[in-house]
Amino acid sequence: MKSKIVIAHRGASGYLPEHTIEAKAMAYAMNPDFIEQDLALSKDNVPIVIHDIYLDDVTDVATKFADRKREDNRFYVIDFTFKELKTLQVTERFNPKTGKQVYKNRFPIWKGNFKLHSLQEEIDLIQGLNASTGKNIGIYPEIKEPEFHKKEGKDLTKVVLKILADFGYKTKKDNCILQCFDAKELEKIRKELKSDLFLVQLIEFPEEVKKLPHFATYANGVGPWYKQILSKKNGNNWQLTSLVTNAHKLGLKVHPYTFRADSLDEFSSFEEMMQTLFIDANIDGAFTDFPDKVVSFLKEKKRHK
Ligand code: G3P
Ligand code: CA
After folding, report:
1. How many Å lie between the centroid of ligand 2 and the Cα of residue 304?
2. Nearest-CA residue for atom 5 of ligand 1
3. Of the N and C termini of the chain, which has fewer Cβ atoms inside 10 Å?
4. Residues of the domain holding 231
5. Domain presence at residue 82
């Protein structure tokens, strides 16, 4: 693995609706090291590439299947067959309550004819492109909400591990990184299911950072929210937390999320964000909606080393 990797977060999602096959093809052409797949199961056990267990933030499910919402007013991937899911139109992420798109300068809402797809379809695309281009871009699947799936009587992990193995992703050498926010599930994947894949423990809450020594007993890396690496800003300089140093001491790689050039919060530019986290904090990779910008930043840095 390269010393610093670029992970196309939901594809080239800064330019095309997230997790569409088009966003994945565009990401591929931008030369990231990995392309991400968030996964939720359909009613007939097909792993669908989608960020949430719900459909209503990125599709027209509320108009096509109005009577299929649950009591909480949400439409769940798991309540629909793969055939039904294929009839939905996918669009740029929006707030289902207001109908407004979340990132207003991105691909216009409801434009185009995008569809959902399965994990197998996406791996076919990436492996096909690897064959036709001679590149070797990896996959970075995420098991979404394993507990929810279990309550629904389904084992998402089991389905995903079988598909990964069938496509040749079995060990750390196979250009696949498996990620999950649920620590119990990821630990089980290593210790009970004996997976030899490269595993990344995602970190959502700040209090989880102190569990790094435990994560190191089964994971090869961690994926924190990037703000967990930042302490405070003094003038133009960022003070950093000890997260990256501590993780490195334990042999863990650090791949924070999410680098968005159009949502900078505390940074004055995307360049400042990349410089602070990649160079000053010495992270090992990043999830980004703008793989082209991060690839070119790292290329430039290498040249000036
Ligand atoms: O999986 C890491 C990254 O994708 C951030 O999480 O919520 O976008 O899946 P999320
Ligand atoms: Ca993810």
Report:
1. 32
2. 257
3. C
4. 5-44+122-303
5. no
| Residue 189 counted as domain residue | yes
CATH of the domain at 13: 3.20.20.190
Q: Please tell me the residue having the least CA distance from ligand 1 atom 2.
A: 257
Judged on CB neighbours under 10 Å (0-12, 13-18, 19+), 199 is buried
How much is the pLDDT for 74? 97
> 6: pLDDT confidence band, cut at 50, 70 and 90?
very high
Phi-psi region of 136 (alpha: psi -120 to 50; beta: other; left: phi over 0): beta
Q: CA-CA distances (angstroms) from residue 92 to 163, 230, 257?
A: 28, 30, 20
Whether 9 lines ligand 1, by a CB cut-off of 6 Å, is yes
The catalytic residue positions are: 9, 51
Which of 18, 39, 50, 51 most suits a substitution to test ligand 1, by most atoms within 8 Å of the C-beta? 51
Query: Which three-class secondary structure state does DSSP give residue 79?
Result: helix
Structure tokens belonging to residue 53: 């267990």
**AA identity, residue 132:** S
CA distance 169 to 164: 5
Q: Indicate the number of domains in the chain.
A: 1
Give the ligand with the smallest distance to the CA of 38: 2
Token pair in block for residue 176: 């696949």
